[in-house]
Write a structure and sequence with these properties.
- The protein has 746 residues and is α/β, with parallel strands linked by helices.
- It folds into five domains: 2-80 and 714-742, no CATH class; 86-207 and 672-706, von Willebrand factor, type A domain (Rossmann fold), CATH 3.40.50.410; 212-308, Immunoglobulins (Immunoglobulin-like), CATH 2.60.40; 311-565, 3-Layer(aba) Sandwich (Rossmann fold); 569-667, Immunoglobulin-like (Sandwich), CATH 2.60.40.
- The chain is built from 17 helices and 37 strands.
- An eight-stranded mixed sheet has the order 19-18-20-21-27-26-25-23, sandwiched between helices. It has a six-stranded mixed sheet with strand order 7-6-3-8-9-36, with helices on both faces.
- Helix 2 (22-41) packs antiparallel against helix 3 (49-70) and helix 14 (537-544) packs antiparallel against helix 15 (550-563).
- The chain is elongated and about 150 Å long.
- The chain starts with a helix and ends with a helix.
Length: 746
């Protein structure tokens, strides 16, 4: 009854505290005094002194009770109790914990162990860092157990910890596992902890069913027209038979049967011969069976860049000359060039002159085979002062058409001037004229024999072919001091989609300088016209002036490099930020656009398409900035090869493409066999303060009974709201009112 009246139990060891503000209490007291005074002296004056005194005392006591209530009295009792220290649980939240096994997912196994942990445990999820609470799913991309243990040690420094439990499959991606399992480390020290630790292993190797392609060795690049090897490592059940398939950008290439050894491992080799330069996406895969633990590792994509080991060049010269000799020597001495050269040729007139073959020193020119069967084996064809008519006595138009198509389909074609080249070689109106960067069909004189010094054009200053030094200014200075040419072949000017690199200082045609050197991208290939036959003079003149023959060598080296360039050196280029991408990972598609003279093109509208597996396509539109570049972002949603196609027009030179491969392979799942020995090694490192629980062992964790903590408590009883004060106030106020009314006062 007493506890009810006072608002709660009150011990004798407590103290009384006041919670109300002093200002409020004083104000209430003043108002109470005024109210009591008014009550005592109001009403009729014939009341007895005793009645007035009793009423005054009653009202005074009631006001006092009210003031005490407003002062908010609180009875405070302090106490303490002893409790066990904290218990900490670390749960591995990485994606390897989501692997399926025959007995269920590892995550479900971890949750079952977590439910048996002591009540009130502090639970954390660890991946690359430590997070408060149990994992909602198993999606973290890393598993750094060493960092998690170090964080726990810092967080509970100086606090009593009765025990720590670690629930993991042991696949630590940090440095702790590598150090603990290194046979060369003899003094391994486990991270210090504030209490005993128990390691619970999740997962068992024998419960895994996982056929996977672990690795594909390719070297990252291959040489054009040279076989290369793709070697794949496959893992699965011991003695399992499977089929390994090779695809190139979604198209079936080859497959090989494979029998895994007693360790469940095997290797298979594919030999492939690339036929074009650039990047291509390949994929080695094995079948996905029902119940496969990690279907994403059943395929292994790899992007391979095909480059030229040696540039195969065909040089055909109509007659011997210094220019032919110097160019042939340059090509022969370049170890990256495989040269086939023909000059001092036998014409079909020699065959009809009645001479026997034994009487002729000149070999027969195999023109039909070269310009039909063998043409595709060359990267570059040089027609140097060569007139075709004396040699092409059969199907000349067909052979020239082959050469033109060769250029359009990705080959490189160069015509060098002389008395048998261009209009003097009667190329006007032929298929060759259609792919040249200059217009043929000059009426009147076809050459100008006056010496001159070529002038570097604005396009020449920007184009990589004409760059003879590291800076444009130095390059222009070198061109200015080069010797004069003996004359040049005349043309009707340059074509609209070509770039003039060198022009004549005085001769004009079609509103501009007479072309001396010009280049053009035609279809997928490139062509070049050099209207002089004395570039060899650049070598002698430079050497005489003490500058060596670098101008001649650089010009032809860069001409060779540009003419047979791979797709990354074209005017329009698209480059994915990554060649091998994870599913859902953003890819930046960087686009670069240059004009015919290789100057940046600003404000160019680009239409692009990303074509994924099965022909799915996603389009995008961008425009280039002042540097001629643009960026589009793409997030792949399907696994497999993705080809990026961009275009700014309808012609081949206004288009570009590249490829990247999207994989569902997760680096966190590259290894999924649980590492119980690592967890056991850690437990041993802690000695008596460490314990290891194998898969299926849910025994209680190690606990330190001496790790206790003192918990301080205080109990407060608010007297202001107690029934006793309310009853007293009601009795005193009603009693005073009753006395007042009894004596007739109102």
């Amino acid at each position: 009854m007493t506890d009810f009246l006072l608002g709660g139990p009150m011990g004798s060891a407590g103290t009384l505290r006041w919670g109300g503000s002093i200002e409020g209490v004083i104000l209430a007291a003043l108002l109470g005094v005024i109210a009591v005074g008014l009550a005592a002296y109001s009403g009729r004056h014939d009341r007895t002194l005793k009645g007035r005194a009793l009423e005054l005392v009653g009202w005074t006591m009631a006001v006092l009770v009210l003031i005490i209530s407003l002062a908010e009295p609180v009875w405070v009792e302090a106490s303490g109790r002893e409790e066990p220290g904290r218990f900490v649980v670390l749960v591995d939240g990485s994606r390897s914990m989501g692997v399926r096994e025959m007995t269920g997912s590892r995550g479900r196994q971890a949750q079952a162990i977590l439910e048996d942990m002591p009540t009130g445990a502090d639970v954390y999820t660890f991946g690359d860092d430590l997070q408060v609470g149990a994992p909602d799913d198993w999606t973290l991309g890393g598993s750094d157990l060493g960092a998690a243990l170090a964080t726990v040690a810092d967080r509970y420094l100086g606090q009593p910890v009765q025990g720590i439990a670690v629930i993991s499959d042991g696949l630590d991606r940090g440095g702790l596992r590598a150090e603990a399992m290194d046979p060369d480390v003899t003094d391994f020290q486990a991270p210090p902890l504030p209490g005993p630790v128990t390691f619970y292993q999740i997962g068992q190797p024998q419960a895994l069913q996982d056929l996977a392609v672990d690795e594909v060795i390719s070297g990252g690049f291959a040489f054009l027209r040279t076989p290369f090897i793709l070697e794949a490592s496959v893992r699965g059940e011991p003695g399992e038979r499977t089929t390994v398939t090779l695809q190139r950008e979604g198209r079936h290439v080859a497959e090989e049967p494979l029998l895994l050894d007693e360790e469940g491992k095997g290797r298979v080799r594919f030999e492939v011969t690339p036929t074009r330069v650039g990047r291509s996406a390949w994929e080695v895969s094995v079948p996905v069976h029902v119940g496969d633990a990690v279907p994403g590792n059943n395929s292994y994509p790899v992007v391979i860049r095909v480059v030229r080991d040696r540039t195969r060049v065909l040089q055909v010269s109509g007659s011997p000359s210094y220019d032919q000799k110097f160019l042939r020597l340059f090509l022969k001495e370049d170890p990256s060039v495989d040269l086939v050269s023909f000059f001092i040729l036998r014409t079909h007139e020699d065959f009809g002159a009645g001479w026997n073959s034994s009487e002729l020193s000149l070999i027969a020119f195999p023109y039909e085979r070269l310009f039909s069967e063998d043409l595709s084996t060359f990267d570059l064809v040089i027609l140097q002062n060569f007139n075709y008519k004396p040699y092409f006595n059969r199907d000349a138009d067909g052979l020239l058409t082959n050469l033109a198509n060769y250029a359009r389909n990705g080959g490189a074609l160069v015509m060098v001037g002389g008395d048998r080249a261009f209009d003097l070689g009667e190329y006007a109106g032929t298929p060759i004229a259609k792919v040249m960067p200059v217009k043929l069909g000059v009426t009147g004189p076809k050459v100008d024999g006056r010496p001159f010094s070529p002038v570097l054009t604005e396009s020449g200053k920007a184009h990589p072919l004409a760059r003879l030094a590291s800076t444009p200014q130095t390059s222009a200075e070198i061109w200015e001091r080069l010797p004069q040419m003996d004359g040049l072949n005349l043309t009707r000017g340059i074509k609209s989609d070509a770039a003039m690199l060198l022009g004549h200082p005085t001769l004009r045609v079609d509103g501009g300088p007479m072309p001396v050197a010009a280049v053009r991208e035609v279809g997928e290939g490139r062509t070049m016209a050099l209207m002089v036959d004395a570039s060899w003079r650049w070598s002698f003149s430079e050497a005489a002036q003490g500058h060596g023959n670098q101008a001649y060598l650089r010009f032809w080296k860069q001409a060779l490099r540009w003419l047979v360039a791979d797709p990354d050196d074209r005017r329009m280029v698209v480059s994915p930020s990554k060649e091998n991408v994870l599913l859902g990972e953003e890819v930046q598609l960087r686009i670069r656009v240059r004009d015919a003279g290789y100057a940046p093109v600003e404000g160019q509208s680009i239409s692009g398409t990303v074509v994924g597996p099965g022909g799915t396509a996603e389009s995008f539109e961008v425009a280039t900035d002042a540097s001629g570049e643009a960026v589009s972002r793409f997030v792949p949603q399907a696994r497999g090869a993705h080809r990026v196609l961009i275009q700014a027009g309808t012609e081949a030179k206004d288009q570009a493409e590249s490829v990247f491969s999207v994989s569902a392979r997760d680096p966190e799942l590259a290894e999924i066999v649980p590492d119980g020995p690592f967890l056991m090694r850690l437990a041993e490192a802690y000695g008596d303060l460490g314990a290891y629980r194998a898969h299926g062992d849910s025994a209680a964790p190690l606990l330190d009974p001496d790790a206790t903590r003192q918990v301080h408590e205080s109990r407060q009883t608010a007297l202001a709201a107690s029934p006793l004060l309310a009853i007293l106030f009601a009795l005193l106020a009603s009693g005073s009112w009753w006395i007042r009314r009894r004596e007739g006062a109102r």
